[in-house]
Batch of 4 targets.
Target 1
Amino acid sequence: MEDLTIIAKNDNIVLRDRIAGDVEAFIRWQTSGEWLEFDAPWEQAGKPEPDIQTLRDKFRDRCEKKPETPRKDALIALPDGRPIGWVNRYSHKGSEDSWQIGIDICEDEYLKRGLGTQALALWINYLFANSSYHRLGLETWSFNKRMIRVAQKLRFVLEGTQRQVIKWQDEWLDLHNYGMLRAEWERLR
């Protein structure tokens, strides 16, 4: 049994480091799942099929590297260890005190159950509790009504909308920008 580093958990969700045994789920996620329809699908259009062995090798190499604290990403798993997606963070353009965060539930059978909201809440708490960062932000597209609801449930503030940024499937899409400041997170705790 591989060592599992638990980053955060509640009764329904575990955020943990990836392990080599997660590789087959990760590979499946790269080519299937409803999540691909919501996470900038135009970036996938016309892309060649990924090389499975390259994906497998990169995943295993990443498992062998010592992760940063706070983590840049974490696997979302069920209490029994089954991986169902991930959360991540990345630098915000032009700011050293702000991160952008993201989430994908990659197993379709676990969508629309509130697990993404729970996982993102755990991730937000982990990131603020383990850093001195001032702000977390997230972006989502106007067609992603589920992510908009998650942002609202978690009390992110709509900071602005970039109107008609991209045209996808004959529809102009807006990009919604949400943010949460450390002081707001502290008041919510």
Target 2
Amino acid sequence: MEKLAAFFESWTHYELSPVASHLAPASRRAKYRAGRHFAAWMRKSHPDVLKPRDVTRSMAEEYLASFRSGRSPVTCNLRICTLREIFRYILEGGDAQAANPWNRVRLCARDGYTRRELSLEEVRRLLVASESCGREWRMLFSIAIYTGLRLGDCCCLTWDAVNLASSIIQIVPRKTRRYLAGRPVTIPLHPELAALLGEMPLKSRSGFVLRSIAHDFTTRRWAVSRKLDSIFHKAGIATSVMLEGRSRRTPTATFHPLRHTFVSIAANAGVPLATVQSIVGHTSVAMTRHYYHPSEDALRQAVNAIPPIMTGAKPPRHAAPSSSRFCSRLKEIEKAKSRGLITGEEFHTLRSRILAEF
């Protein structure tokens, strides 16, 4: 620590900055480790440099070249942005922006690899595998699938946030709790999730919904991660892959992609992205769009909507609806008639249209 003190003594300037004051403890520790790692490298590679102001762009790029070995572009870019932010506040004087060496370091090109969303078949296998581990784990996956909440919000969901009478969950996500003025998100309860929550005894509806999982998540998070890995393994889903050029395995299908799955299922079902954004608590539709993965049926439907363009081309013939779809549509209008939502004349008109299409 003493060897690094001469170079890293300006860390307090960053800790007292408006940005650092709003950081969660884990984020603060991660940024501190990043700064110390760079300070240790400077001490070893350039021992004559004792002040952050003396760091040049070439030194920063030299450090990045050594740091990049075996790491993903996303990890490298995170390190660049972290050091760029730290130097912005520890450099004193009016020309701090111009003196920041990390401002002139280009971000690494991404390799296009991202965590994939889970298919419905994989989700079903996860539910079966989680059920064998206990009721709480089945409930944890059900909450994630039907709400799109992040792992921490699912594990630490409280009964105060659940309103079974109104069939909604209203929660301030942990990730955005420190800013956006604690803006809550309102999530309607899916009937299956409402039924699972309704099965809980009344005397147990206080505190955390998942008591043992919440305890483990807040005291020994590694135990939750290990249990999730075993559930994915039971479901036959690989959670990581080994990519060429990386020293560690890269996550591919973990708990968080269930959030991607929720967004994609809702969007593919025709729910507007702005509505999905409101449910999952994204600050912009652009972020929700990043989570949205169009299904093949949605893509095909979009392409087929383009009218014929070539001269003489005949419009495509629409395939006749399947018998199951035909029967379901008839049942829908029959149910509407029995409830008095449509008149007898409207029922016969709609029935004639359905029969004509079939």
Target 3
Amino acid sequence: MARTPNPAGQLVWLVQALTARELVEQLGIPVRRAGRLLGIAPSAVSQYVHGRRREGALAPLALRPDVRAAVHRVARALAEHPSDGTASARLLLEAAAELAPLVGGSDPSRAEAVRAERIDRATLAQLRERVAAEQAAVANCMQLAQKARDELTRAIFRQIASDSLRHAEIVASLAVYLESGLRRSRASGIERADVEELIRREKDAESQSSERLHRRFGGVMGLLAESMAADERKHERMLEGLLAEGFPD
């Protein structure tokens, strides 16, 4: 069975092909560097430049002044502010979203679909960067924990490492849900009454202490005690937020 053409995807490839030509033919950038700017292989750039890769049914759009202007802006941005492949993908998708109404008439749903794809890809790239950063933080904190000479100082770095590891797991889960097409989820397997009961117990436990624990200590001891108080405040906000947004109306 033949695949149904994807106009939005074809438009992205058209912008990429025209940008490759703009970089090489108009801005005089070598093929290898143009490939790095676009995040594609130099051989792909050569094929675009020499016309061995066709742009399909959208090729006539390449002659339009508004398309040429959009491609020129992308090429200039890449040449003047070189970055990684994520940045080039963002620029290409933004240009495709701008030109989407030209595909098959001014259908706003196509433009919206391209914008949604751009947002999702950019968010996924940010999530992957965050996972890597959190994993690096775990390694750094564990090294400092081993370097520390007392248990309380080690506890600080171990706690940060534990938090960073948990953050990495959360971000990885967010990426999985986003890749599956979900941008919003609801609580499952628990009832609103369960959360309300937990909030009540948390408040009862806190009210039994007339003075906050962290006020009795200083230095590293005070920092650890304050971290526990901050966790309690965070738990309260999370549970209240779960009641407000985690259950169907």
Target 4
Amino acid sequence: MPAPDGLEVCRRIRAVSVVPIIMLTVRDQVFDKVRGLDVGADDYLTKPFDPIELLARMRALLRRASSVPPQGASERFEVGDVSLDTGSREVRVRGEVVPLTSTEYRLLEALARAGGATVSHRDLLKRVWGPEYPAETGYVKASVRRLRRKLGDDADPPRVIQSDWGRGYRLAVPPHATNE
């Protein structure tokens, strides 16, 4: 792809939108995949690929992106200085709105709904990416890393999203949930 490259295009789109993004590329090294996901792609598919697989991934991404909570079922979760409103799909840190990709939002919501319990890599993959990604733990790790950075939670140790090594992730403090 001529300048700007796909990573820069993804960054620019992500700066203004949460539209689902699938990167299609010949770069098949793990480093390249992680980099693509880190800049904001929701999925990454290497060439050559089967068009049927691409269509399935597109359907899955659109299904997840269009899942809007039912009217009146809004919940708010608060973990320290992070708040998540499921009705507006808005995340705030210290009162300031933080733009998240649809994948990052679903990841944070899945952790919040777990009430402080550890959610395994496999369960996060099913809930956030869908059942067609049973072994892609790199997706979870890259998305958690991006999410921590956006939440200002990239200190050592993180204050909001904790790692349970070899098991999965959990919120450091069980979220306080309220129905609105």
